[in-house]
């Protein structure tokens, strides 16, 4: 049997409309999983991620939910946890970023980033993970960051949230590993997405970043697909509480 085969499993991917989330949803579908995509602005039908998933021969359901709204997150968690067909894989990927020097980083930006990147992630993991614990089976994958390990520049809220994601990954793994639930995280490096557009548009910053990456290039969202499939699969049955960098060697430098 192929331990990476996800046939028959149901995966939820937040932030699935574009970028890393879309790439992860596509990779999971290509490995056999049906997908529920979640995003604040996800089209009800005809989205790019839906075409990716159905093109791989799997079913797709779109849910529009704004993780900046706590009530919407609670409703989403109840929806997912209460389904007749249980969620086998939860990819807690949705996130947002606000860039400003710390002395000009507003309370509103701080609250938004912590809500979307950390609080909502915990609320969904609590709801879906509780159901997984009851079934004694499930996979939860968070999207962490290089800024789960480092401080970054002019992103204090994002850095605090992503450090929190790394800690939450370990805390939930400690509780839920004995119940057959794997909780892990992927830490993307510098990936060419909307979140890094400002960095790529700055020749000095982009050049400094590339100089430090041993692989010599910005990552592509598809570079995260293999790690997502691995952590979602039986091949990672004994992997608990890890934060897996996919960074072109950045942290090793």
In the CATH classification, which architecture applies? 3-Layer(aba) Sandwich
| Rg calculated over all Cα atoms | 17 Å
Number of structural units classed as domains: 1
Q: Count of helices? A: 8
Sequence of strands across the biggest β-sheet: 3-2-1-4-5-6-7
Structural class by helix and strand composition: alpha/beta
Mean pLDDT: 97
Return residue spans where pLDDT drops below 50 for at least 5 consecutive residues. none
**Count of strand segments:** 7
Structure commentary:
The longest helix is centred in the middle third of the chain and has 29 residues. The radius of gyration is 17 Å and the shape is globular. It has a single domain, classed as 3-Layer(aba) Sandwich (Rossmann fold). A 7-stranded parallel beta sheet has the order 3-2-1-4-5-6-7, sandwiched between helices. It starts with 9 loop residues before the first strand and ends in a 7-residue tail after the last strand. It is built from 8 helices and 7 strands, in the order E-H-E-H-E-H-E-H-E-H-E-H-H-H-E. The protein has 253 residues and is of the alpha/beta class. The model has no long low-confidence stretch (mean pLDDT 97). 41% of the residues lie in helices and 15% in strands.
């Amino acid at each position: 049997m192929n331990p990476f085969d996800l046939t028959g499993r149901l995966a939820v991917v937040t932030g699935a409309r574009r970028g890393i989330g879309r790439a992860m949803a596509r990779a999971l579908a290509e490995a056999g999983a049906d997908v529920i995509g979640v995003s604040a602005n996800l089209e009800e039908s005809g989205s790019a991620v839906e075409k990716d998933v159905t093109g791989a021969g799997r079913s797709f359901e779109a849910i529009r939910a704004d993780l900046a709204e706590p009530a919407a997150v609670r409703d989403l968690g109840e929806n997912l946890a209460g389904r007749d067909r249980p969620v086998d894989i939860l990819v807690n990927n949705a996130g947002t970023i606000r860039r400003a020097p710390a002395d000009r980083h507003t309370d509103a930006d701080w609250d938004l980033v912590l809500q979307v990147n950390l609080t909502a992630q915990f609320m969904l993991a609590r709801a879906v993970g509780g159901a997984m614990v009851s079934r004694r089976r499930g996979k939860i994958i968070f999207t962490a960051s290089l800024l789960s390990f480092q401080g970054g520049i002019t992103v204090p809220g994002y850095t605090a949230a992503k450090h929190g994601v790394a800690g939450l990954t370990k805390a939930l793994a400690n509780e839920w590993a004995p119940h057959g639930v794997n909780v892990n995280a992927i830490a993307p490096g510098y990936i060419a997405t909307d979140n890094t557009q400002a960095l790529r548009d700055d020749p000095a910053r982009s050049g400094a970043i590339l100089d430090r990456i041993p692989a010599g290039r910005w990552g592509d969202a598809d570079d995260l697909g293999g790690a997502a499939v691995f952590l979602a699969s039986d091949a990672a049955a004994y992997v608990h509480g890890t934060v897996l960098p996919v960074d072109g060697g950045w942290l090793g430098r």
